[in-house]
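Reminder to self: tokens first, then the designed residues, so the page reads top to bottom the way the pipeline ran.
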């Protein structure tokens, strides 16, 4: 009978990262590996593949990055956000919750750096959360689909790529999300995000994705190594898809919560708020502020980002009034989702904390 070890045990034995072991398994580079549920198991006497890269040192962790470009993504603000994390993160503050996760810039930065007892993420964009779930539980099937998309797309010239994009967009819109379409939809979702204009996600009144083709030279659609890493870190993450309030029961005094809701538009036309069919109105911002207070009273550590109305109207105290009593900082930020380059100037945004 063959005796097996887990990917973690193999990683320790060979002094390589667990993620590298998963990649080697997925690439059939270790004989006789098998899958037990969602885990790779490796024959105990397997030899370390010759070209497996060594970890440079014990504390080194391979980093994972968001798998989509997302409107309002916090990649640009990570340094500021990291400086504003609560004390004791990963030690006394053992849980993390992100109710408007989007592309998860802060989520993945934290997962790269901290160990949490539990992590909860949510977004009301069902297609996005389906992609998170498929990466977590059906990663290898997703790879097959992405590989086809990447190869077909790369083999075409510019015009052919445009046609291919619109064909895949139609296919995505015609499929109803369900168990049997989950992997195909996740692959198309990633493909469209990587090849559409500015990596936007926008839908029409019928809920159909309607962003036009982008003009990237050679977009990387299928980043296998990163996806494997994401799959690994997502194993301990609970993924929900619905209204942000659904996270309430998961949040307690040991939880750090980061709210990054759709921003309140600075004026009627500047706001990008249609991530899904529904808009996020002032009424919603007010309801969110009440929810923020509820979590704060539970003892959770809560941080929230939003636009600063004072950029366009110094007398607008909307958020200063709503979040009175909390720490309100104005931080410098550049708006990335704005098709007019001249409007991409530096403006301030709000960072509101209860600690
Ligand atoms: C500013 S984006 C978050 C960006 C994210 N921090 C990132 O780094 O990519 C806001 C997100 O809120 C989601 N959203 C909008 N209304 C929501 C609601 N009522 N409940 C949960 N999520 C919602 C949108 O789908 C969008 O992904």
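Designed residues (355 positions):
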């Amino acid at each position: 009978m063959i005796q097996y070890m887990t990917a973690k045990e193999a990683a320790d034995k060979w002094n390589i990262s667990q993620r590298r072991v998963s990649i080697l398994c997925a690439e059939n580079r270790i004989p006789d590996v098998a899958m037990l549920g969602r885990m790779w198991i490796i024959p105990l006497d397997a030899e370390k593949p010759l070209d497996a890269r060594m970890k440079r040192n014990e504390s080194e962790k391979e980093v994972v990055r968001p798998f989509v470009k997302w409107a309002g993504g916090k990649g640009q603000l990570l340094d500021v956000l990291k400086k504003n994390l609560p004390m004791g993160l990963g030690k006394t503050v053992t849980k993390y919750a992100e109710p408007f996760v989007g592309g998860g810039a802060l989520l993945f930065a934290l997962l790269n750096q901290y160990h949490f007892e539990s992590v909860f993420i949510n977004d009301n964009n069902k297609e996005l959360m389906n992609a998170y779930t498929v990466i977590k539980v059906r990663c290898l099937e997703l790879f097959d689909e992405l590989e086809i998309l990447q190869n077909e797309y790369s083999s075409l010239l510019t015009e052919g790529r445009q046609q291919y994009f619109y064909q895949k967009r139609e296919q995505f819109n015609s499929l109803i999300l369900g168990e049997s379409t989950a992997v195909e939809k996740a692959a198309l979702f990633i493909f469209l995000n990587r090849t559409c204009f500015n990596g936007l996600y926008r839908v029409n009144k019928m809920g159909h994705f309607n962003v036009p083709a982008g003009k990237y030279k050679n977009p990387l659609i299928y980043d296998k190594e990163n996806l494997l890493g994401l799959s690994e870190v997502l194993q301990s993450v609970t993924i929900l898809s619905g209204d942000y309030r659904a996270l309430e029961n998961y949040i307690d005094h040991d939880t750090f919560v980061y709210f990054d809701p759709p921003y309140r538009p600075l004026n009627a036309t500047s706001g990008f708020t249609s991530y899904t069919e529904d808009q996020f109105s002032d009424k919603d911002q007010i309801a969110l502020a009440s929810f923020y207070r509820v979590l704060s009273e539970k003892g959770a550590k809560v941080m929230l980002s939003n636009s600063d109305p004072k950029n366009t109207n110094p007398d607008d105290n909307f958020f200063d009034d709503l979040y009175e009593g909390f720490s309100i900082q104005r931080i410098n930020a550049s708006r990335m989702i704005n098709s007019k380059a001249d409007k991409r100037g530096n403006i301030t945004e709000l960072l509101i904390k209860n600690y």
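The beta strands are 4-6, 34-36, 39-43, 95-98, 118-122, 237-240, 255-259, 301-307, 327-334, 346-353.
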